[in-house]
Amino acid sequence: MATPALKARAERETLQVLNPFLEVLRSPEEIKIPKETLVGALGHFISTLDGDRLDSFIQDVLASPSLWKTLDSAQIEAAVRPAPKLKANALRPEVKDGWIMRNRLSKACQAWLKDVVKIVMRGGSLGNHAVVILIGLLQGLDDADDIDWGKPRVELEEEIVIALAERFEKNSCDALDMFCSAAESIDPARLRALDLRVSYVH
Questions:
Q1: ∠ CA 12-17-21, rounded to 5°
Q2: CA distance linking residue 69 with residue 127, whole number of Å
Q3: Could you tell me the CA-to-CA distances from 61 to 40, 102, 110, 162, 181 in Å, in that order?
Q4: Please, are residues 16 and 54 in contact by the beta-carbon 8 Å criterion?
Q5: How many domains does the chain have?
Q6: How far is CA 45 from CA 23, 102, 132, 180, 192, in A?
Q7: Once rounded to an integer, what is the mean pLDDT over residues 86-96?
Q8: Residues 6 or more apart in contact with residue 88 via CB below 8 angstroms
Q9: Domain carrying residue 178
Q10: pLDDT at 94
Q11: What mean pLDDT is reported for the chain?
Q12: Which of 49, 82, 81, 79 is nearest to 67 (CA)?
């Protein structure tokens, strides 16, 4: 387990990288960071930051005037996807495996997921950027399938289904791409709510 000194050092190192990265996200100028670095940073910070810093970071990602011109939706989904597994690994206790410890780990992961989704969904109505982030998170839960994501996963799937339904109803040009990205990770029972709206897919 990390000592307080090591934790403080890790936090300082994170901030040294985070602050310049936030300036890049907030700038309207073209992002010159290599795409591989940019993609890696998104998942890393979502899994590493917490509290107000996580909130601020996600809001900057959603509102960035440059990020969404540099990366397409699929690339941003892929960037967010590693976050759940990275978080689970960071939270995993350095003790003997056992049912009690696995249950505690799952509860901690669920709390993290709930917090992230709440931040992304702030304001109620989901814009396309928010839906892309949520789909990336959902895909990432499949990569950490040793974790019981519980009710927060169910709620995440439901929010995505609602967002997709709204877009199909409005004949949004992004609806089909979003559906294709999310469908494999959503419980088929929840997808049935979309049957009438996506019938032209088949």
A1: 140
A2: 16
A3: 14, 32, 22, 22, 20
A4: no
A5: 1
A6: 14, 24, 17, 26, 34
A7: 78
A8: 105, 109, 144, 146, 147
A9: 4-201
A10: 52
A11: 88
A12: 79
Residue 3 has a pLDDT of: 60
User: Angle at CA 109, nearest 5°, toward 104 and 115?
Assistant: 130
C-alpha distances in Å from residue 87, one per residue of 61, 65, 94, 167, 175: 19, 27, 14, 31, 29
Q: State both tokens at 78.
A: 């892929």
Within 95-182, residue ranges assigned H as helices are 99-120, 128-143, 150-169, 175-182
- Which DSSP category does 199 fall into? G
* CA 151 remoteness from chain centre: 16
State what percent of residues in the chain have pLDDT above 70.
86
Burial of 55 (C-beta count, 10 Å sphere; 0-12/13-18/19+): middle
**Residue whose pair of structure tokens reads 């073209």 in the numeric block:** 30
Tell the residue number behind the tokens 């049957």, with chain if given: 195
pLDDT in tens, 127-146: 999 999 999 999 999 999 99
Query: pTM higher than 0.85, yes or no?
Result: yes
With b for 16 or more beta-carbon neighbours within 10 A and e for fewer, the 57-95 pattern comes to bbebbbebebbbebbebebbbbbbbbbbbbbbeebbeee
